[in-house]
Amino acid sequence: MSKKYRKPWFRESRGVWYVTLDGRQFNLGSDEVAAFEQYHQLMCMPPEQRIAGDSVAHLIDAFLEWCQIYRSQGTYEWYRDRSQLFVDFIPRGLKVVQLKPYHLQRWIDSHPNWAPGNKRNACRAVQRALSWAVKQGYIEKSPLQYFEKPPAGKRDQVVSAEEFQQILANTSDSPFRDLLQVSWETGARPQETLRVEARHVELENARWVFPPKEAKGGKLHRIIYLNEKAQKITERWMKKFPKGPIFRNTRRCPWTTEAVCCRFFTLKRKLGVRYSLYSLRHTWATNALKNGVDPITVSVLMGHSDTNMLARTYAHLTHDPVYLQSAAQKVNA
Fold first, then answer.
1. ∠ CA 255-261-264 to the nearest 5 degrees?
2. Per-residue pLDDT reduced to its tens digit, 184-214
3. Which end of the chain is more exposed for a tag (fewer CB within 10 A), N or C?
4. Rounded to an integer, what distance in angstroms lies between the CA atom of residue 208 and that of residue 226?
5. What is the C-alpha to C-alpha distance for residues 90 and 309, in angstroms, rounded to an integer?
6. What domains can be seen in the chain, in order of their start residue?
């Protein structure tokens, strides 16, 4: 009787095809056709030549499995989405000893439309997986240890009230308008707005509360306070979707980072300016400071551990003569 082998199977949580041969799992990538081609190549090899443990894909898989156990779901998804794109770009079966900095450079260069911050974060995700592999003893040294990440750029886009009204006027569907409005009213991080669920909402206290495991940093609760507009929007959507992320698109699917980026690209064609959810958070903080909210309170409301981030990110206020002149007039008033 001939020996039967398991065929490739799809892991939805990773968006990747795998096959288990001789008790070992092999990452075949996210493309189904390419995955089955690689599967047939593996089947033609003698078992002793099917090397899984020394491939880049294998180490990234191991790192992501560790993230699922020891990091928040949001952190796991952040690394998964970026590192899987890298695995799909490099040659299939590329071993760690074959990995060179130019692989990472060519990958980010292949995405000219990525913002500087996106490119830097993509490099961070891959480098983090390799540095983790060193600490775990999988490899002795990361081949990407000295790779120079591109600069992140500055988030200095401030959206005026008039611009925001134009954005809303050029948004045809209410789900995206509500997402924009609640971001404008709360100053929440984009990942917080996209992931908030009914279980995080305390309507009686007009706030969202993320437990430490689901909050950035993983040590403290993240509390986002809601004004009247944000509270009404939140209440309406949590009634529609009592389980899972409450903010969803017209197809009733939770918003993803990619979907939101596509919507902003559509707006760019109409308005000629590229906006983002982070631009709305940045604007919220700028408006708070200009309206006299003290920096410590602004930092707490934004979820920063201290005011250093605020000072670095919003130093552009020193170049606003109208604001500074008004502030100077209040000193001895």
1. 110
2. 999 999 999 999 999 999 999 999 999 998 8
3. N
4. 8
5. 35
6. 9-136 (no CATH), 161-328 (1.10.443.10)
